[in-house]
Design a protein that fits this description.
about 300 residues; alpha/beta; seven-stranded mixed β-sheet; 11 helices
Length: about 300
Amino acid sequence: MKTALYLLTGLFALAGACNARAQAPATPVPFRLPDIPAVLTAPEDRAAYLSVHYWDHFDFKDPSLIERAEITEQAFVDFISILPYAGNAPAAVDTLYRRAAADRRMLDHFITLGDKYLYEPNSPMHNEELYILVLRAQLANPALSRTEKIRPRYLLELALKNRPGDPAADFTFLRRDGSRGRMSEIGAPYLLLYFNDPECDDCRRVKRQLAESPVLNRRLEDGRLRLLSVDVTGGNGTREQESVPPGWIDGRDEGEQLTRKEVYDLKAMPTLYLLDAQKRVVLKDTTPERIEEYLVREAH
């Protein structure tokens, strides 16, 4: 939060400096920010103006800028960093992708940047809510054909499933002892869903991290949290060798229905969801650190 606010402050200051430099001959600034009107003093108003006018001075018809990562890619990174603080983020994103259509190579480049920073699971800037805006902008873009819109339409359908605040899709699972369970019937103030593949190295790492977390273990012990581990592979091959820590619910997705029917977006393993007592999604496709932070914050 503080980092983003510092970025906003820096961008506001830089915008003013760019305006001042524009008054006199000087070395051209590689990426020029818009001149924010002085009458806009509230941070939210300045952020809104900056976001929708961010690309006013960028030459989308110059394909050589695609190779200038220090200009174009860095500008995109800064742009998406301010969007959470701009009330007009959908309009800002749509404006970017419509302007990028001035050159098809540039449009493709910004589509790639959206995937790289907002969609890829391992991106430190991964943000599904912002990626939804990018996908909607692609679907509304007249420069893309029907065929080219198949992918963003499919990804949007996945992204709109199980969003924070929405009821999580219910499912059944098979316990190690052969009995069946239903996710919605697990009672607890919070339920952590740990979708995993036992043969996945990242899954083993996250499993250890969850098992060794004092924050999670305290809440598991006092009943404020339940943890459902779901082997999405159906348990073939490694299930006899793999086990879950004491206190976890050990389940598997018989027939791989979660994956086949795309009940959840499981593009990467493992995938973590935190649900509340009503089985509404609190945190989606999250990390152990964010889960710990949330639970500690809610305890105070």
